[in-house]
Amino acid sequence: MVTHRLVMTENIVAATVSALRQAAEQAMDSGATRLQLDLARVQDLDSVGLSVLIGISMSLQRAGGALELYNVRDEVFDIIHSMRLDKHFQVHRFPTERDATSS
Fold first, then answer.
1. C-alpha separations of 68 from 2, 3, 15, 33, 53 in Å
2. Rounded distance between C-alpha atoms, residue 89 and residue 9, angstroms
3. Global pTM?
4. Axis crossing angle, helix 17-29 with helix 47-62, rounded to the nearest 10
5. 24-33, pLDDT tens digit by residue?
6. For burial by CB atoms within 10 Å, which of 12, 48, 96, 99 has the most?
């Protein structure tokens, strides 16, 4: 499984999702089947952003992979959890996979 990590530098909202969508497509075109998004700087996530995350997750799942969110702030986690999207992709409040598994 090829893993690609993206560090999000802005909120995942309607005005900014095209960059995320493009980066995810480039990663998948390069063979990535697992995409890890570092959301440490993300403070807001709207319905358009949620839709893009779901679309990315579905594309990765069809390829046998997965979407993983790391370093998720409480306010973003609450949005994801309230929509029950944490059932569709992995959500960690930790900065790295190693940190998530060691706690």
1. 13, 10, 22, 11, 10
2. 20
3. 0.88
4. 10
5. 999 999 999 9
6. 12
